[in-house]
Amino acid sequence: MLNSKTDKSERLFTEAKKYIPGGVNSPARAFQAVGTTPRFIEKADAQFIYDADGNKYIDYIGSWGPMILGNNNPGVLKAVQETILNGLSFGAATEREITMAKLVCEMVPCFEMVRMVNSGTEATMSALRTARGYTGRSKIIKFEGCYHGHSDGLLVKAGSALIAEGGSPDSAGVTENCAKDTLTAKYNDMDSVEKLFQEYRDDIAAVIIEPVAANMGVVLPKDGFLKQLREICDINKTVLIFDEVITGFRLAPGGAQELFGVTPDMATFGKIIGGGMPVGAYGGKREIMECVAPVGKVYQAGTLSGNPVAMAAGIMQLTNLKENPDIYEHINTLGEKLYGGLAEIVKTAKADCTVNHIGSIGTLFFTGGPVTDYISARKSDLKQYAKYFQHMLNNGSYFAPAQFEAMFISNAHTELEIKKTLDDAAKFFNI
Ligand code: PMP
Questions:
Q1: Which terminal residue of the chain, N or C, has fewer Cβ atoms less than 10 Å from its own Cβ?
Q2: 211 CB under 6 A from ligand 1?
């Protein structure tokens, strides 16, 4: 049965647009890049998600990463239910925050200290402020096509929904002054990084990177690239920051830094660290983190930071991940099956497509590739992606509603869903 009944979603979308810009609280949800009605979601359970018209989908978004254990994981749910009985927020210190801090410091190689915030955006913004406070320098290097949230200085050549929105990567409302300290290098291109260091050597506070890029679609770092970044930062006494909002606790319990064996000075997390509650975190070397108020002079605060309910959900999810390596084995095996299967399909169909993947995240690009950076990702045929997306959605697979995003597999997925998705993809490619 096709999932093409969308009357209620359409009605809700029309109503939503009267009161909310574009009808959504985050641009990618508007499905602008794929030219179809955004589905209004009613509930999600395990590997499935259900819309307002009663359509059921295999969920390959998982709230853009947090739902690594599957939607509505019983353990996480129970932790939330138990915690809310004692109050939703105190704006004061709690023991749970220590449990969370200890847990992530054990799991994440670069963490000696951590500060909890409420989103990935806050985490990266605060990490950069801290790096600037620590070094006394003003400039930062980011990479074209990497997205680090929507703070002013990071909306420069950013990825994610900004790419899909018609090519101009910069946002209106970001002043030249805010953007002038953001230097951009090319992903996987050390020459471009070296040139910036030659020009601005003593002025670069930090290099921030998605260790596996996931906001220009999934793009893997070339062999040795992260290590070379580590070296150039060491030489220049620049703070290396891995933005692990997508890769953290997903590619390995200790994130990409554990997987690739390269330890940054700082790292940022979001989404997954809160099990679905609004949470982010930044942390790193003690010497750097002790620059943060009230110990140091870098100001950063948050009324709801370390919120008890969010901490309870996050602690439960991360403990689960830490204690059950079989979760990684499961999602990575399914990743191999799904992305390997898609690669096989496009090869058989002789389609001009490339599949990039690592573990449970991946992207099918509608370009012959290889896709190694922002420029090669942008060669994708977006109209074809839109058609593919619509076909898959109508057949019950809920993919990322834009080419330049990742797909996510959870521990609740099984081979059955992967097989169905692959069968439907094969039909799209006429094989
Ligand atoms: N960094 C990365 C790598 C991300 O993918 C995102 C969100 N997709 C962010 C930062 C921003 O996180 P948030 O949406 O929670 O502010």
A1: N
A2: no
